[in-house]
């Protein structure tokens, strides 16, 4: 995931903004964990560089080590994504704000029948901004962000994954308010795995995850922890898990205007804005995700550089003047479209919209 514009001090897009929901500073004193700042640009978010309170004490060194691993690999103390960094996806933004941010901001209004949702699922093709949305949510809620890839739990934690899940929720409560983002949930909670062939450890871990999610609404100290999950294949998800992910939000491929925004954000420093034809490049990128457009722009930037290097090498010119990076032309971008394959799965978009009409949560 590339660093969004807000991390470099610029806000790229105008979109459904929101007043910040300050849930109180988790920062007391203690260890400072992972910061994503760039030296050249002072951080836009005053929360950057906050300190987390000290880690809880555990009964054994094994548990302490597990907690430290989670803090090192999974905890991102500074997600620092603004809603405005994300091109369009207004429905998803509004739905998330209503489902997660508002219950936290106005808890009195959401007690009893209108209780907050247990968990939220972001589904859609890969590279469309699901992780960015989760980070924007965590940023707005000033929550500690735990970013876990389900496939890495499966591969790295096999035997210990049940303990890892328990510890993850324990730390999330300790550093509350927290957001736990589980990417690629399907690799963990696939209904296909329940055919009896499943490894005992992985069955226990799944059960633990369900138990922990059920426990979120009854935490003795009322700590706020919300779970967001993402999947590219929501139809593969286990029914028990799906029941707990009460809100399901489609994050689709970018529209023409979103693609234009993305191109303009990524290329504006590298083109002559007066002559570069953003509209025709955007029109040619239908079917590409935001992540694909990122790759396309990098390729477009490389083309004139490659041509210049070739010229210098060929002519064996030893330049005495400093080299300047050549501007990207419209043709560079159009040529790059042709060699940028959609990284999306072969799943047709209609499959997502059909699933959405059956299981999704519209506004
Ligand atoms: P996902 O979690 O859906 O696979 P990510 O949120 O990790 O996708 O997005 C991957 C990258 O693609 C981002 O870092 C960003 O550069 C770009 N991107 C995708 N969608 C958007 C969007 N709607 N607005 C801005 N950037 C986007």
TrEMBL record:
It comes from the Eukaryota. Residues 1-13 have a biased composition (Polar residues). One of its GO terms (biological process) is microtubule severing. Residues 116-255 form the AAA+ ATPase domain. ATP binds at residues 124-131. The keyword Cytoplasm applies. Keywords: ATP-binding, Cytoplasm, Cytoskeleton, Isomerase, Microtubule, Nucleotide-binding. GO terms for molecular function: ATP binding; ATP hydrolysis activity; microtubule binding; microtubule severing ATPase activity. It is found in: Cytoplasm, Cytoskeleton, Spindle pole; Cytoplasm, Cytoskeleton; Cytoplasm; Cytoplasm, Cytoskeleton, Spindle. GO terms for cellular component: cytoplasm; microtubule; spindle pole. Belongs to the AAA ATPase family. Katanin p60 subunit A1 subfamily. A-like 2 sub-subfamily. Severs microtubules in vitro in an ATP-dependent manner. This activity may promote rapid reorganization of cellular microtubule arrays. This is Katanin p60 ATPase-containing subunit A-like 2. It comes from Bodo saltans (Flagellated protozoan). The chain holds residues 170 to 532 of 534 of the full protein.
């Amino acid at each position: 995931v590339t660093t969004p514009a807000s991390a470099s001090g610029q806000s790229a897009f105008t979109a459904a903004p929101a007043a910040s929901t300050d849930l109180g500073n988790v920062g007391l004193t203690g260890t400072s964990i992972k910061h994503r700042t760039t030296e050249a640009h002072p951080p836009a978010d005053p929360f950057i560089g906050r300190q987390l309170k000290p880690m809880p004490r555990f009964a054994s060194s094994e548990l302490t080590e597990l907690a430290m691993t989670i803090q090192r690999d999974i905890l991102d103390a500074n997600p620092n994504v603004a809603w405005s960094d994300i091109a369009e996806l207004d429905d998803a933004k509004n739905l998330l704000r209503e489902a997660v941010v508002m219950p936290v901001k106005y808890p009195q209004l959401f007690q009893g029948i209108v209780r907050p949702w247990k968990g939220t699922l972001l589904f859609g093709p890969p590279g469309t901004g699901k992780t960015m949305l989760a980070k924007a949510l965590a940023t707005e809620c000033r929550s500690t962000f735990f970013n876990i890839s389900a496939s890495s739990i499966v591969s790295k934690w096999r035997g210990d994954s049940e303990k890892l899940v328990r510890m993850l929720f324990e730390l999330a409560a300790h550093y509350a308010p927290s957001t736990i983002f589980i990417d690629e949930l399907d690799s963990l909670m696939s209904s296909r795995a329940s055919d009896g062939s499943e490894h005992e450890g992985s069955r226990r871990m799944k059960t633990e995850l369900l138990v922990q999610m059920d426990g979120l609404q009854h935490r003795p100290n009322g700590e706020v922890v919300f779970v967001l999950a993402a999947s590219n294949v929501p139809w593969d998800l286990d029914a028990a898990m799906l029941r707990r992910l009460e809100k399901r939000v489609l994050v689709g491929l970018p529209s023409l205007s979103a693609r234009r925004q993305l191109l303009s954000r990524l290329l504006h420093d590298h083109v002559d804005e007066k002559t570069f034809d953003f509209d025709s490049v955007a029109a040619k990128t239908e079917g590409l995700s935001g992540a694909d457009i990122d790759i396309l722009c990098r390729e477009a930037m490389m083309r004139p550089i490659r041509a210049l290097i070739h010229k210098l090498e060929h002519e064996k010119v030893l330049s005495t003047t400093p080299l300047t990076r050549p501007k990207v032309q419209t043709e560079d971008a159009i040529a790059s479209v042709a060699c940028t394959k959609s990284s999306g799965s072969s799943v047709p978009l209609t499959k997502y919209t059909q699933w959405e009409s059956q299981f999704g949560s519209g506004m």
